[in-house]
Amino acid sequence: MGWIRNWRRRKVRSRPFPVEWIGMIREHSQFLDEIPTPLVAKFQGDLLVFEEEKEFFGAGGFEVTEEVRVVISAAAVRLVLHLDVSYFDRVSEIVVYPSAYVHPDHDGVILGQVSDWHAVVLAWDAVVSGLRNARDGHDTATHEFAHVLDRGSGAFDGTPILRAREDYGPWARVLSEHFLRLRNGGRRHRRLLREYAKTNEAEFFAVATETFFEKPRVMRRRAPELYGELQKFYGADPASVRDAQLERDGRDRDDRND
Ligand SMILES: [Zn+2]
């Protein structure tokens, strides 16, 4: 990272965090409550930087408001809470459609996609419904920003830039094992990861990321090694966060799908 960008980022981070942004994020999601107190300032700084640096464009008649920018930026930087926001440096544009749209190059309806190295394309209705239910394993914004992390390594193959050189061996072994088990119809895996993860390694990583954040306890139980690799990369332990929440709420909630 160049020193000019470094200096600019320091200035952006030192701005007061707009309190109204908290309400905008809470309106659509619950993850603010899961951010550990010592990381709140880091999260807010990343959010200021992301929202400032990325250009947002509305498409298909969609008007990008401050709320749209803030909610999408929050969903992105939440993924790198324990990593550096520079993981998103290759992305310069976020294109937002009003709803799931049909892309001319595809035969199906696309909810969001990383169209090239510099742009992320999202459907606002899919972003909203993905964030609203934080426990169903579907989160479009998380899925698309996981693709961005993947592509940061220069290839679109289900492997982002890992923390250490020695992480690549276990990562490749564990992810390929689980990918193949899913393809070969392993029942535990079909119930854990949705069908789309079978498409290729990149989709496997993106869907596994959604499951890691939305159904962490189920993943830890059914695929502990896969959970462990994602935990090592993201630096997050969402299953323990849910454990603590359940502890606090007195375990009176049905937690089978966490
Ligand atoms: Zn995908």
Write the layout of secondary structure elements.
Blueprint: H1 3-13, H2 19-28, H3 40-53, E1 55-58, H4 66-79, E2 93-97, E3 101-102, E4 109-110, E5 112-114, E6 119-123, H5 124-132, H6 140-151, H7 168-183, H8 187-192, H9 201-214, H10 216-222, H11 224-234, H12 238-248
This protein binds zinc ion (ZN).
Describe the model:
This protein is α/β, with parallel strands linked by helices. It folds into 2 domains: 1-152, Cyclin A, domain 1 (Orthogonal Bundle), CATH 1.10.472; 155-258, Collagenase (Catalytic Domain), CATH 3.40.390.10. Helix content is 52%, strand content 8%. It has a 4-stranded mixed beta sheet. The protein has a two-stranded antiparallel sheet with strand order 3-4. β5 (112-114) and β6 (119-123) form a beta hairpin. α6 (140-151) packs across α9 and α10 packs across α12. The longest helix is centred in the last third of the chain and has 16 residues, at 168-183. The termini are far apart.
Task: Report how far apart the termini are.
Answer: 38 Å
Name the strands of the widest sheet in spatial order.
1-2-6-5
N-to-C order of helices and strands: HHHEHEEEEEHHHHHHHH
Tell me the helix content.
40-55%
* Mean pLDDT value: 89
Which term fits the overall shape?
Answer: globular
Gyration radius, rounded: 18 Å
Known CATH architecture of the largest domain: Orthogonal Bundle
Tally of individual helices = 12
Structural class: alpha/beta
Supply the CATH superfamily name of the largest domain.
Answer: Glucose-regulated metallo-peptidase M90, N-terminal domain
Which molecules other than protein and nucleic acid are bound? zinc ion
**Strand fraction band?**
5-15%
The total strand number stands at 6
> Domains counted in the coordinates: how many?
2
Largest sheet: 4 strands, mixed
**CATH class category name of the largest domain:** Mainly Alpha
Q: Low-confidence spans: pLDDT under 50, at least 5 residues? A: 102-109
Q: Remind me, CATH topology of the largest domain? A: Cyclin A, domain 1
